[in-house]
DNA sequence: GAAAATAATTTCAAGTATGAAATTTCATGC
DNA sequence: GCATGAAATTTCATACTTGAAATTATTTTC
């Protein structure tokens, strides 16, 4: 290490100024993320009469045409099991999702999009890409690449043990 | 503008590759943010037996010692009015928050931390700073500064009309 | 100064979200 | 073959979140 006062380590307590800067960037990140999320939520509601959690579930199911087990779904989305149960219930009621028992295992359920669900999601996904591009298109490709790399660093910082991030 | 195919505009439809890159960075940002949030949530739960929404409310009240009206609180936190009502109810029940009627206005309520609430929050805030620093301290001050600037760009991209972001 | 518009909150219905407990089923050891 | 533990889901209690409707109090307008 080549900086006697610039980086925090386990041994030396970080300078108050740097701690404050960490806090600042985190609050900024949170605010920017909430801004984008709120935009997407509102557009999903207005244009497609749906919600972000439903969109997220459908996105996961769209990728895995063969279907996903409930537990796979909840770990892919990083939400609790009980949560997924409720969202799937409503999607099934709306005819967007189908539940299929798994062949050799009476415990498990395979969940997949219906044809109607796939068609609906395709439309939403196309619109979603445009919304996101309206926001992130203002960054140059180079800046975007650097941003991704910084986010990667953050995502792989410690802080918590469990889960350990397998990609979705 | 000096790039015939590198930036999206209202006139020219963005290239699919750039749209995909926008989507990638957004998903990455969402994932990193959720990672940090989950870390904070879990630490608040384990170490202080509290939740992130409660922490956020207390943080706002900590800043405004004189207290805030319910509506000021909900707009500062950018959450709905009804939401704040419930969180404050629980904080009052726990003796962390006090409700005071406003002098000249029988509709409004001033909400402020009790002494106990201030003390509790001070401890949590100190711990919170360390947690955040454990994560964001891995970025150099320079990188952090650039990250803040990028996030600023994102936050001020259009996408939605309402609210228009006055700072909290 | 009564009626109408505004403002500050709460209430409400529905949906999300969590972690823990309960259920049912499967796999193994013995 | 059965007890035991692990796996897959659901159920449950609680809390958070939203947008809209309802309530109560203030301000404006005529």
Automatic annotation (TrEMBL), chains A, B:
SUPFAM superfamilies: Winged helix' DNA-binding domain
Keyword entries, A-Z: DNA-binding, Transcription, Transcription regulation
Domain HTH marR-type intervals: 22-156
Pfam families (UniProt xref): MarR_2
GO biological process assignments: response to stress
Keyword Transcription annotated: yes
Gene Ontology MF: a single term: DNA-binding transcription factor activity
Record protein name field: MarR family transcriptional regulator
Organism name: Phyllobacterium sophorae
């Amino acid at each position: 290490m080549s900086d006697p006062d610039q980086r925090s380590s386990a041994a030396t307590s970080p300078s108050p100024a740097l701690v404050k800067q960490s806090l600042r960037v985190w609050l900024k990140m949170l605010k920017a993320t909430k801004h984008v999320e709120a935009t997407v939520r509102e557009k999903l509601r207005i244009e497609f009469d749906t919600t972000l959690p439903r969109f997220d579930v459908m996105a996961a199911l769209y990728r895995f045409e063969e279907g996903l087990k409930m537990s796979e779904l909840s770990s892919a989305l990083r939400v609790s099991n009980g949560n997924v149960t409720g969202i799937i219930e409503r999607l099934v009621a709306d005819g967007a999702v189908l539940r299929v028992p798994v062949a050799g295992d009476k415990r498990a359920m395979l969940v997949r999009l219906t044809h109607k669900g796939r068609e609906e999601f395709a439309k939403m996904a196309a619109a979603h890409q445009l919304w996101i591009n309206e926001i992130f298109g203002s960054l140059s490709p180079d800046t975007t690449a650097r941003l991704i790399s910084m986010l990667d660093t953050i995502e792989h910082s410690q802080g918590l043990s469990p889960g350990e991030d397998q990609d979705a």
